[in-house]
Write a structure and sequence with these properties.
- By secondary structure, the chain is mainly alpha-helical.
- Helices cover 68% and strands 0% of the residues.
- The protein is globular.
C-alpha cells in the first residue's frame, strides 16, 4: 500500500500515541485505519475503494502463503497483520458508505463458526475430520436452501480463485455428494486415458481441450493424496527457479556461455544444481 500511518507521529505530537498494550489490540488497528481515512488523514488511504484494494488483498494473501512456504513465523506474523489491515480498510469503507460495520462482519463469522461446528458447540458427534467436512458442506447447503440459493455443490465457488484451487475445491465438493472414484487407481487410469486422448488430438483446439482435462485429473490426484495442487505447483515453481539460478551461477563460475551450451551439458548442470539446492 502506498501510504502507511506512522504510529510514532501525529500532526500534533512526536511521541508514541499508543502504549505497547494498545499496539497489541485489534481495536487499535481499527482506530488507526479510521484515522487514516478521516478528513485530514492520508490522501491515498481516503481515495481507496473496495475495488481499488482488491489487488492489495490478493497480494497480501499470497505473501502470507509465501511466508508459510518459507516456514518463517516472524514473516508470517507480519503478513497476517497486513491481511488484517485489509479487513479493517474494507470494513471502514463499508461503514462510511452505510453498508455494514466491522461488528456485522464479526457477528456473521462468529455465528457461522458456531453453527457449523455443532460437534463442538452442540451435541453432534463426529468420528474424524472427514466427517466434519461432510457436516460442514451439508450445513452450508441447508443455509443456502433457506436463503433460496441454488443447492448444487458446484455453485458459489469464487470465479477469482486460481484455476487449480477452483478445480480442487469443485472436485472436493462433488466428491462429498458421491461423485467419486472408488479408489485412487481410477484416477491413475484416467490420467493414462487423458494422455492417450491428447496424443490422438489433431487440432490445436482439441489439444488445448485435452490438456485442460489432463490438468483436472492431475488436480484430482493431488486431492486423493491430500495435497493442495496450487501449493504443490507453487513450490515446484520455486524449486525450478532456484535450480535454474544455480545452473546459471555454475556456468558463470566456469566461464561457460550458458545460453549456447548443448542441451546435454545444460542437463548435466541441472542435475548438479539439484544436488546443491535440492
Amino acid at each position: 500500500m502506498a501510504c502507511h500511518y506512522n504510529p510514532r507521529m501525529t500532526s500534533n505530537q512526536s511521541s508514541q500515541p499508543f502504549t505497547e498494550e494498545d499496539l497489541g489490540q485489534f481495536q487499535t488497528l481499527v482506530s488507526i485505519v479510521s484515522r487514516l481515512r478521516a478528513p485530514g488523514g492520508c490522501p491515498w488511504d481516503r481515495e481507496q475503494t473496495h475495488e481499488s484494494l482488491k489487488r492489495h488483498l490478493l497480494e497480501e494473501c499470497y505473501e502470507a502463503l509465501e511466508a508459510i512456504d518459507q516456514e518463517s513465523p516472524p514473516l508470517l506474523a507480519e503478513e497476517l497483520g497486513d491481511i488484517l489491515v485489509q479487513v479493517a480498510f474494507h470494513a471502514d469503507i463499508a461503514r462510511e458508505a452505510g453498508d455494514f460495520t466491522l461488528a456485522d462482519v464479526l457477528t456473521a463469522i462468529n455465528g457461522k463458526l458456531v453453527r457449523r461446528h455443532p460437534h463442538v458447540f452442540g451435541d453432534t458427534s463426529v468420528s474424524d475430520a472427514r466427517e466434519v467436512e461432510l457436516n460442514w458442506e451439508q450445513l452450508k447447503a441447508a443455509e443456502r436452501a433457506q436463503q433460496g440459493a441454488r443447492k448444487s455443490p458446484v455453485d458459489g465457488i469464487p470465479n477469482a480463485l486460481p484455476a487449480l484451487s477452483y478445480s480442487q475445491l469443485m472436485q472436493d465438493r462433488v466428491s462429498r455428494m458421491g461423485f467419486e472414484w472408488e479408489d485412487v487407481s481410477g484416477v491413475l487410469d484416467k490420467i493414462v486415458e487423458e494422455v492417450d486422448e491428447f496424443r490422438q488430438a489433431s487440432t490445436d483446439s482439441e489439444k488445448a481441450h485435452e490438456l485442460g482435462d489432463m490438468l483436472m485429473v492431475m488436480v484430482n490426484l493431488c486431492r486423493w493424496q491430500d495435497v493442495q495442487a496450487e501449493d504443490a505447483l507453487r513450490q515446484a515453481n520455486g524449486r525450478f527457479r532456484h535450480r535454474y539460478l544455480q545452473m546459471e551461477a555454475l556456468a558463470e563460475e566456469r566461464h561457460l556461455d550458458f545460453e549456447n551450451l548443448p542441451l546435454d551439458e545444460k542437463e548435466a548442470l541441472w542435475q548438479e544444481a539439484k544436488t546443491i539446492v535440492g
